[in-house]
Write a structure and sequence with these properties.
This protein has three helices and no strands. With about 170 residues, it is an all-alpha fold.
């Protein structure tokens, strides 16, 4: 549970960072698109055709190639950032679903344990009642035996006294 929560926090941070990066990239692309829209493709042609020599043309062609490459890389990075956000969001949803499932499972186990505890408490109370009853019965039996022994002992003493009296009267 703690591990899943930690993963969720990390994913949220990653997603937030990627969204910030996406926003910056989006703003850069917006500026670039605005420039291209305002100047159009003719800007590239004008740069190329405005060259006075072959070497200047080649330099300008390399510049146009680098700008185009930069634009493609900018778009690729933006798409990569969008993919990172999508992946993080999907992982986040999966982890949240796992967390929910884990919580439900823990709740079921807790409920099961509570049910078992209730049953065991009931059994314990029944055993305690039985022990109390048997203890009371044993005490009653002990009291009866003690009373019987005292009477038996008293009766034995009376018998011995009579026998002694009988011996003294005969002798």
């Amino acid at each position: 549970l703690k591990k899943t929560k930690k993963e969720i926090r990390i994913l949220k941070k990653e997603k937030k960072a990627a969204e910030s990066k996406k926003e910056i990239q989006y703003d850069s692309m917006l500026e670039r698109i605005k420039y291209v829209y305002e100047n159009g493709d003719q800007g590239y042609w004008e740069v190329l055709l405005g060259a006075d020599s072959l070497s200047e043309f080649l330099n300008r062609a390399e510049y146009v190639s680098k700008v185009s490459s930069y634009d493609r890389n900018l778009l690729k990075e933006y798409q990569k950032t969008c993919d990172t956000i999508t992946t993080a969001q999907n992982r986040l949803e999966i982890d949240l679903a796992d967390l929910t499932t884990l919580r439900k499972s823990l709740k079921l186990k807790k409920d099961s344990m509570n049910t078992i505890m209730d049953k065991k408490t009931d059994e314990l109370q029944k055993y305690q009642v039985s022990i109390d009853q048997k203890s009371s019965s044993v005490k009653n039996t002990d009291n009866l035996l003690a009373g019987s022994t005292v009477r038996s002992f008293d009766g034995g003493t009376e018998k011995a006294k009579r026998e002694r009296r009988g011996c003294t009267q005969n002798g």
